[in-house]
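Exercise: predict the fold of this chain.
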Amino acid sequence: MAQSISPAEEDLKSALLALKSTNPTLGISKIHALLLSSHPEWTVSEKRTRKVLQSVGLVQNANAGAPGLFYPSSRVIEGLDVAKWTPKAEVRYFGKVKGKGLVATAPIAEGETIWKEDPFALAPEWNLYDLQTSGHACGHCSTPLTTSPLIVPCSASAAATPCPVRFCSRLCLSRAGRTHPLLCTARNPASAALLHFARRNEWMGLHALAQVTARVLLTYNQDDKAFEEDWDVVRSLAQLGMEERAKGGWLNAEPDRAMWKKAHKLYLQAFQEPSTEAEKKRLAKLLKKPLKQEISESLFGYDAFLRGLGRMSLNLEAHGGLYVLHSHLNHSCTPNVSVRHLDQRTALSRITVLSRRDIAPGEELFITYVNPELPLEQRRRQLMEWGFGKCVCERCVREEAERNVAGLGDGEQAVGNADDLEAELKAGLGVM
């Protein structure tokens, strides 16, 4: 009879990942049984199986809700004029862990439009991005283009240096001046590799950071007052750097540092140090004003870059928009407001924030960061990526109590389907 052995950690991890990928809905006990039947020569306890699965984020860690060292940080934007969006809400700071949020200042009726908002920056879903880069959706607002006579091409596009991007109107062309020149293949060809890399990896956070950086750099060169306002918005966004997310266990996957470093290199080539002399000259035409050292360090240092990716992952709306007021909304598994894209023919990227029920003055406004139809453990696992620990909203606390009464243990909670596992792996990139 062959002697039983204790497998090496990496061998065990590889075997468990393979089993979990093939059988994503099985709990720990059944995965452990499959492991032993697949490797009868191994001696592995169920406790060790649980520990390895927890280390790669494929089950909920029992201690995940305990206070940790790393929380997202944010600050209130001084002088933010909330009234330009809505007279029925105000910003409130709740403390270090929760940060800021929005609270109703007047009664809000069910179904009422609380406010509408255009994006500060937009990194649209990839199907829309593909339409933009092929000239079939507006390069600014992302509205799919028709045969309207109002459509205008990128003003820098030429036969020798083409840019395929088009705009639904001259107004959108003008507004695109905040970001497009630095992302235009005609004006700044050095940005192409960064955008292709983001597209190939479907890395929305990286694309959004490129959009925000383009806006900040162009505004810095064009309008001091507008830059101060934009820079204040960026610095106030909730942030948790990629390394902090990894150390706190919020990534739900092994961090892919090689990918981060490759992205950072392309980011620098796009906006600071292009790889060819011709590209350097084109970038210099757009960025003529020397960047202050503290601004440069806050944008281009590697740690700053990782914090920027963290900002994007925490604050992007589900369809890729970054919105100033929307970024203040906190999560509940029973949200009282919803976000819709209702202006689909004229301004697809504009959001409309609607009340889901009557809201009284003093109540906080909540959206949901995850699919509320998911069961408790799947919602909590996905919410861990936001860095606030285990969700303890009213619904989660109630469902946890009901589950405990029913005698259901965490280990047998379904983990999800193959798409969920793919999403967890992408979390290591900061893909949101």
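Check your answer against the key: The longest strand covers residues 89-95.
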